[in-house]
Design goal:
There is one protein chain. The chain has six helices and nine strands, in the order ααβββααααββββββ. Helix content is 32%, strand content 22%. The relative contact order is 0.10. A hairpin with a 5-residue loop joins strand 2 (39-43) and strand 3 (49-54).
Amino acid sequence: MNETLAKYIPEHAVKPIFELIVENQVHLKIVNERVTRHGDYRRALSGKHEITVNSNLNQYKFLITLVHEIAHLVAFEKFGRSIKPHGHEWKYSFQRLMISFIRPEIFPQQLLPLLARHFKNPTASSDTDARLALALKYFDQPNDKNFVFDIPVGSIFRIHNGKIFKKGKLRIKRYECTEVSSGRVFLFNPNAEVELLKT
């Protein structure tokens, strides 16, 4: 298990993560990319705690996602199954678990202040914290994707499901983009990854 973990998370996080997995009797599965989620936790009918994490995440994103899912397990075990999935109990559990990982031997210096700020009040997905999500994406493997905020207004782009949009103006924190086929307007996070199309 330690050798497997070492392929996916920073070296200094392997031992404490392994201890968390053993202590909480987690059955960890590393799975192919799912567009709608980075990871998930469920309690199987057998009572086993099953956590899945996408294999394509960079080591820092993988670590945060894994701790996020373990926090669900810990919160449900401590506070009961009737709590909200991303309510106060989960936030408290996530903060307590993450605090020992926010260290310079685990995360690069440029991520530490962003992580400290994020974990004052963690959100259901680190993707909704645009500054942190963007900083984390710089550690991804190179790909042909662009960020919405980085492409010019009026650009045509494609998203993961094949739908094509035209970038519009910024509205407070998100961009208004028009679906080419229907004319409907959708709001996009600035750090959404899209494929820029040549026009």
